[in-house]
Design a protein that fits this description.
Length: 372
């Protein structure tokens, strides 16, 4: 065996060892796209095309306000426990201001009891919870007519305490909001509570009503024509503005500044993600290897999806600008061929002495043969 045979042997060993290393930041799309591999793998490769964008956007734009919420039409305010009333019986100050004119209106007010009843002179204890102001006025008039000829009764609400909605989550002033004689809309309640823009996930506003959760994309509904302004709240409703802690997109690979990007709006595109980190590296990135890796909750029942964008295509910028990200997406930019080869060399350099050892063995063998 000559020195070149040993050199060849050493080179073969080097290449064999090289096969054990990953070729830089590269994804083997040929293997993933193979039909047999796809059946067995946990992912599905999808090329980003206008057709795929249309399918994705059809799902993304399905953000209309649920009809069930729009069907609710608020009625006149109905009294409830702890509401404070001021009842006037004209020409009868002893009934109107029993505490005297020197007292404030609140001192002469009458509060609905916890059980929904109200006591009034000559009338006694009556059930008022669930009644409107007009219904209560008529009830008192009818009762007092037994003692007062043609009583003139008026009912005013001083404090609305029985009907409330609760706001929680990413609001500056969360808590309770009272519903009064003026119907309370969803937009009014959110406006009063003030959104905490640094913490809010504007795409996830949950309205909980009668045990059912309605998730609204507040950002989309308020920035596009929608019926969100016609959503009225009713007593017992809960509004929760989601937090953006988990609303992130991760970008790695051949980019100048790999990062985890937080966003609070409902829409961030692939082009915005790439632009934020300085785009694919011009010296090391492969234009064909821009991927969006999208996971699933249960890999046992469904596959994750890897979207691939060929950034070398003239239409790539248009496609990237229309491809909407989802929380927890991972954007991966692969390396160009020469970059992968350079990384092979740098990764395998500590083992390059295999070649030198093989040559030295070849020289020693030849010297020994010649001497013999």
């Amino acid at each position: 065996m000559n020195r070149f045979s040993f050199a060849a042997l050493g080179t073969s060993a080097l290449l064999l060892q090289a096969c054990m290393f990953s070729p830089g930041m590269h994804m083997d799309t040929d293997r993933l796209l193979a039909e047999d591999s796809v059946e067995e793998s946990l992912v599905e490769m999808v090329q980003i095309t206008p057709k795929v964008l249309a399918q994705e956007q059809a799902v993304a734009t399905n953000r209309a306000v649920p009809q069930e919420l729009l069907n609710f039409v608020p009625e006149n305010y109905r009294l409830g426990p702890n509401d404070s009333l001021f009842i006037t019986v004209w020409d009868h100050p002893e009934l109107t201001i029993p505490g005297g004119q020197q007292q404030t209106s609140s001192a002469n007010s009458r509060v609905v009891r916890d059980d929904g009843t109200l006591f009034y002179p000559f009338v006694g204890s009556v059930k008022v919870a669930g009644l409107t102001q007009e219904e209560l006025r008529k009830l008192l008039s009818d009762k007092l007519s037994r003692y007062i000829e043609q009583p003139q009764v008026d009912v005013n609400i001083l404090e609305y305490n029985s009907q409330k909605v609760t706001l929680s989550g990413a609001f500056v002033t969360p808590g309770f909001r009272e519903i009064n004689s003026q119907p309370l809309t969803l937009l009014q309640a959110v406006g009063e509570a003030v959104i905490d823009n640094e913490r809010a996930d504007l795409s996830t506003l949950n309205l909980i009503r009668d045990g059912q959760v309605f998730t609204l994309d507040y950002d989309y509904l308020t920035s596009h024509p929608s019926a969100v302004g016609s959503v009225y709240l009713k007593a017992g409703d809960k509004l929760h503005m989601g937090l953006n802690d988990a609303r992130k997109v991760f970008i790695m690979g051949e980019v100048p500044r790999p990062a985890a990007l937080s966003y609070s709006t409902s829409r961030m595109t692939l082009s915005e993600v790439l632009a934020t980190v300085g785009g694919p590296s011009p010296t090391s990135a492969s234009g064909r290897e821009v991927y969006v890796i999208r996971g699933v909750e249960n890999l046992e029942t469904e596959k994750a999806t890897i979207f691939q964008l060929n950034a070398q295509s003239p239409s790539a910028f248009i496609l990237a600008d229309q491809f909407e990200m989802q929380p927890q997406d991972v954007v991966f930019v692969g390396a160009a061929g020469i970059t992968r080869w350079n990384r092979f060399v740098s990764q395998l350099f500590p083992s390059a002495n295999i070649l030198g050892t093989a040559v030295n063995i070849g020289n020693d063998y030849n010297d020994l043969s010649n001497n013999n």
